């Protein structure tokens, strides 16, 4: 499991903190993005509150795309409900995204490529350096 946090200035007086976990799904055989939003006082955000924090292009992506939608399910390691981008179409769109890469490059680029698409749905900006070879 990979975890990281993101802070969003929701309004002038309101800061929301988001926790993200990337967990491998053995059922779908793909990574899954789990997340939850918290108010400054620690209270969990509802999906409607989370959607207010998303940039317009993310909301549009969630509303129009057949590949990305948010559900709520039990976190596999924490046994508590978290929001997640449902992984049902992930394998298909990842094949489309990486089809021209060789096996070695596909392995190296899989997670950054996946996060660049999955992250957009929840407003994450992925640094370009993730794609650059050392």
TrEMBL record:
- TM region positions: none
Q: Which residues form a coiled coil?
A: none
Q: Which InterPro entries match?
A: Atg3/Atg10
Which keywords does this chain's UniProt record carry? Autophagy, Transferase, Ubl conjugation pathway
One GO cellular component, as annotated: cytosol
Any one Gene Ontology BP term? autophagy of mitochondrion
Q: Which family does it belong to?
A: Belongs to the ATG10 family.
Q: Which Pfam families match?
A: Autophagy_act_C (PF03987)
Q: What is this protein called?
A: Ubiquitin-like-conjugating enzyme ATG10
Q: What is the species of this protein?
A: Aegilops tauschii subsp. strangulata
Instruction: List the Gene Ontology MF annotations in alphabetical order.
Output: Atg12 conjugating enzyme activity
